[in-house]
Write a structure and sequence with these properties.
- By secondary structure, the protein is an alpha+beta fold.
- The chain is about 30% helix and about 25% strand.
- The chain contains 21 helices and 32 strands.
- The strands form 8 sheets. Strands 12-13-14-15-11-10-9-16-20-21 form a 10-stranded antiparallel β-sheet, sandwiched between helices.
- Strand 6 and strand 7 form a beta hairpin.
- Helix 5 runs parallel beside helix 7, helix 5 packs across helix 15 and helix 7 packs across helix 15.
- The longest helix is centred in the middle third of the chain and has 29 residues.
- It is globular, with a radius of gyration of 30 Å.
- About 35% of the residues are buried.
């Protein structure tokens, strides 16, 4: 299935019935229609086919080897039209064997794609298989299964190895949720008593069983995947009795900070923010509106500015709807006259399942702001006929609370003087009032004052983000880690149950209930049995957690009460704590600022970003930074014609050395082949770039090799080391490139100059809109957009 639209938005948590709706009864016929259409323009491509299959219980296993013709386009695993289908649907879990040479290496060296591909599969029954092989032209082959226990075992091992390799590939490369591949691989690892394949190497080290501590802290898709994998493997099966007390949190060492003796000016709104909250401050209402519009443009994910993604969870919009805060046209006009300052604050950013967050306003006019917020709340309640409103007493203040039974509306509205907080979390309301009374407000913390001394409010930043050390410590606390795992497990169980039912249908098994699926080994024993008293409920509206609500609108972690935990939960937290201690040591605050300047005609924004992690030297994360040399104002002069350039001062070679490099503006010739924009020459010939050092250290002589002949009159020679690079020596500069003419262009322009600021690292990307390389960048953008668009059908394919 190849979508005609540019992207496919998969909102898994918003639509818990989505898998149920995708029964895929039509799939085999639809696949054949698509293949027939493609046959018209691929009829010239034929493949030689070899097939073998062996009977077994409860399934047989087979292999089909397709030898592609020399004029076949592209690599098979890049082509969604290369597949095998049995006309009665008896082939299940087909997997293509990955090739050892990766795409980047092939393109760099100019190696053509492989001409042979192996499909491994499991099949039902003992009768001959009528197989349609799409390569991509369709060819039919009949395979008669044989009986050989030895060959069956060997082929089953090959199928499992290919399945494990495929899992590693999709884990690393896919644009869509890998719930199907994750379930199938983990379930067959348990059924076959095999080791679960490990995720690929990450930053030169293998991830721990529970994922990296960073993944656990931010609760990203990788960690959700790890939770679901552990559910299917049965690692929570003994998680039934909660009799262990919550462990003690880590006790961090005091941070050594230099605070100016004369004091630091901080904004008044920070005095109402709890010191353990993140703080996203806009300064005024127009800045808030600009940022909201900016996020909408990129679907709420700034990563889309670089790589557009296929999943749009609409988390930001859902959060605003949940707390009943919107932006009417009148509010956009009147807002600057009513609102003095705006900040988004919270204990966490877990928007995907339900965050403890709120919007804090400092009013210029209390009456108008209160009237506007209450009007919005009444309007939202009208859209939720089953919603109710209560006036609660929290910290001796009256607070308005509106909510719907499904949790899609959950909004506390608290007012303290000129400050108005609208939030999803009762605990955040309590801390808001406590901070206003002087109990650990952000403004009083030394680390915040230190940050404001480095990034003063007089700079007029458009957006200021501050993540205190206490914010990270709260996320790493036993309460947060245990409850987060429980809610991610709940979401995982909902997704796994639906996938398990599809797997049972694919294998011809009538199992539907949890007990039946457990007995048939589609689910581990004790699936969905929990120690916290919650249950997995299936209703006409979809699955929900009896204690937390609907996925996507869970009760915030901060509002959940935890008394006792299970031994499994205690062990998982201990592992997390040990990883954190070993790799990070302790947390330090992070401050970031965006400053926006609009162009004269209003069509372009120039955005300057600054990030400060201080004092990072008091963490174990600093070992890489310790190899950097001291910050210097001396730098390599900018080279005209560079579209990307970088420079770092390296201190690990005895004395500081400037390492620098650049990518030159050029227009490599491209062709469109099999949906990819590819250079007509090997990548090493197409990329015009250089690297260099000043002053030249002997280490690079050894790395890039000695010259194969004496340096010529231009100081250029060919090396015999890595890639046989061209070398050029100019005074104290040492320059390397894949192309000799690049050295001739860059060499005469090399010079050391003084800069305004002393830094350790510089990175610059030029405006690419008027450069030759724009065509290449557009080609890469096309490839990414195509992959994004295809990801929706690939997700459907995995369900089928």
């Amino acid at each position: 299935m190849h979508p005609a639209t540019r992207r496919n938005d998969l909102t898994w948590h918003n639509q818990p019935k989505c898998v149920r709706l995708l029964s895929i009864r039509f799939w085999h016929g639809a696949f054949a229609v698509v293949a027939a259409i493609t046959l018209a323009w691929t009829a010239d491509i034929r493949a030689a086919i070899h097939a073998e299959a062996y009977c077994g219980e409860p399934f047989g296993v087979g292999r089909i080897t397709v030898s592609l013709s020399p004029d076949a386009r592209g690599a098979p695993w890049d082509d969604d039209r290369v597949a095998v289908v049995e006309h009665q649907g008896r082939i299940i879990y087909p997997v293509m064997k990955n090739q050892p040479v990766r795409r980047m290496v092939r393109q760099f060296l100019g190696i053509g794609g492989p001409r042979q591909v192996d499909f491994y599969f499991i099949f039902r029954g003992d009768e001959p298989l009528d197989v349609a092989v799409y390569s991509p032209a369709v060819e039919h082959v009949t395979v008669s299964p044989k009986k050989s226990a030895k060959e069956f075992g060997k082929l089953l091992d090959d199928w499992w190895d290919a399945t494990a390799d495929r899992y590693r590939q999709v884990y690393r490369e896919t644009e869509f949720p890998i719930v199907v591949q994750n379930y199938l691989t983990a379930n067959w690892a348990r059924r076959l008593r095999r080791d679960m394949p490990q995720p690929p190497m990450y930053l030169l080290r293998r991830q721990s069983v529970g994922g990296s501590w960073i993944s656990q802290l931010v609760a990203n898709e990788a960690y959700q995947t790890a939770i679901e994998r552990d559910i299917v493997l049965g690692r929570f099966s003994d998680n039934l009795v909660a009799g262990v007390s919550l462990p003690e949190p880590l006790s961090p060492q005091p941070l050594q900070l230099a605070i100016p003796a004369s004091g630091v000016e901080v904004e008044p709104i920070a005095a109402r923010v709890p010191h353990e909250c993140f703080y996203f401050r806009f300064g005024d209402f127009p800045n808030y509106l600009w940022f909201r519009d900016f996020l909408r443009k990129w679907q709420g994910d700034l990563g889309n500015m670089l790589v557009e993604r296929s999943i749009d969870r609409q988390t930001s919009e859902r959060f605003q709807r949940q707390i009943a805060v919107g932006e009417s046209k009148l509010a956009r006009v009147m807002g600057p006259a009513v609102i003095e300052d705006v900040a988004i604050i919270g204990f966490d950013g877990y928007l995907r399942d339900g965050a403890a967050m709120g919007i804090l306003f400092q009013a210029k006019n209390n009456f108008l702001l209160s009237n506007n917020l209450n009007t919005q709340r009444r309007k939202v309640m009208a859209n939720h006929p089953d919603s109710t409103e209560e006036n609660l007493s929290i910290a001796d203040h009256e607070v308005s609370y509106i909510a719907s039974p499904d949790g899609r509306l959950r909004s506390y509205y608290a007012v303290d003087g000129d400050y108005h907080l609208v939030t999803t979390s009762r605990r955040l309301v309590e801390r808001f009032f406590e901070a206003g009374n002087g109990d650990a407000p952000l403004a009083a913390s030394e680390e915040f004052q230190h940050a404001r001394s480095e990034m003063p409010i007089t700079r007029g930043d458009t957006v200021f983000l501050y993540l205190p050390a206490a914010f990270f410590e709260n996320l790493a606390s036993p309460h947060y880690r245990v409850e987060l795992d429980r809610r991610l497990r709940s979401v995982g169980e909902m997704r796994i149950l639906q996938i398990a039912r599809l797997a049972a249908r694919a294998e011809g098994n009538p199992a539907q209930s949890i007990d039946e699926l457990e007995a048939a080994e589609f689910l581990p024993r004790n699936f969905a049995e929990r120690a916290d008293g919650s249950r997995l409920l299936e209703t006409e509206a979809g699955s929900r957690d009896s204690l937390r609500g609907l996925p996507g609108w869970f009760i915030p972690v901060a509002d959940m009460t935890i008394d006792k935990i299970t031994p499994v939960e205690a062990h998982r937290f201990l592992e997390f704590q040990q990883d954190l201690q070993r790799e990070a040591g302790q947390f330090v605050p992070v401050a970031a600022a965006l400053r926006r300047d609009a162009s004269d005609d209003g069509t372009m924004d120039h955005i300057a970003a600054e990030v400060r992690i201080a004092p990072y030297s008091q963490t174990r994360l600093a070992h890489w930074a310790e190899r950097l040399g001291p910050a210097e104002t001396l730098r390599v002069a900018p080279i005209p014609g560079d579209v990307v350039s970088a420079e770092v001062i390296w201190g690990g070679l005895g004395k500081p050395v400037h390492l620098f490099g650049g990518l030159r503006d050029s227009q490599p010739p491209l062709i469109i082949r099999q949906g990819e924009a590819r250079p007509t020459t090997p990548l090493w010939q197409s990329v015009r770039g250089y690297v260099g050092t000043w002053p030249r250290p002997h280490l690079f002589d050894r790395l890039f090799g000695e010259p194969t002949e004496p340096f010529d009159d231009d100081g250029v020679a060919r090396g015999n080391g890595l890639f046989d690079l061209w070398q050029r020596r100019l005074d104290d500069f040492f320059l390397f490139s894949l192309q000799r003419d690049v050295l001739m262009e860059v060499g005469p322009q090399l010079a050391m100059v003084e800069a305004e600021r002393a830094v350790q690292l510089r990175f610059r990307i030029a405006d690419l809109s008027d450069k030759q390389i724009e065509t290449t960048i557009s080609g890469l953008g096309y490839m990414q957009s195509r992959a994004t668009s295809a990801s929706g059908s690939r997700f459907m394919n995995s369900l089928a």
